Amino acid sequence: MEVIICRNADEAASLSADLIEDVLRQKPNMTLGLATGRTMEDLYDKLAERHQKAGLDFSLAVTFNLDEYIGLPAEDPNSYRAYMNRHLFDRINIDKCNTFLPNGVAEDLDAECAAYEARILDYGGIDLQLLGIGRTGHIGFNEPLSALQSRTRCKTLTPGTIAQNSPLFDNPEDMPRRAITMGVGTILESQRSILLATGTEKADIIAKAVEGPMTAMISASAMQWHQKCTVILDEAASAKLEHTDYYHWIFQNEPEWEPYRAKYSA
Length: 266
Prior knowledge:
- There is one protein chain.
- The protein is α/β, with parallel strands linked by helices.
- It has one domain: Rossmann fold.
- It has helices spanning 9-26, 38-54, 80-87, 109-122, 159-165, 184-188, 203-211, 244-253, 258-264, and strands at 2-6, 31-34, 62-65, 67-69, 99-100, 128-131, 153-156, 178-181, 192-197, 229-234.
- Strands 1-10-9-6-2-3-5 form a seven-stranded parallel β-sheet.
- It is globular.
């Protein structure tokens, strides 16, 4: 795991977009794992702008989203399919036939989960997985006590997650209590991952996930085990970390970050 601390949320989203763009230009048919949530919206704005103004080409890319609410059809405005269409897919030249989300209204939800896992494998696995982090430390909807080797499955949401997400619904009581989510084990098998977190409200949980012990109570802590995970933060989200001097040192001295230093160094 590497931690990169940017000056503000806009720079954190820009660096994340740079990394995704670089992989896409190197491998136009990349398989990209996607996340939802307010933190991702600025990042998706930047990717859409790069497509529109700089010709960033998504035509051969394949995407898999982390999760979807159980009980919401794709056309529901609060579904994650609708979210992705609104914030990204309708704004770039991706073939929507190559954009996959779990089907939250499948007749057999267990079969849908197994089929989603199989489809990821059919495409050769995920090249780059984008992640956010919930206030309980969850990635996807892998709530506390999610097994670190778990696969795509149905999961009951915690009251904390419901409280965090329900204001996004016109009627907060309409928010589903369950979701389909990629498992922690599924996420760990991605070739590379980017965890993007910004804002003071994420500082406590980021400190636990990054510098605390690996535990099923905080599923994001499992990213310490990932073969190539980059945690990108703004200064606010990094405020509770103890080793920020070392993280800045990494950015200044690791060769892989040299192309980005002029743009993101203070």
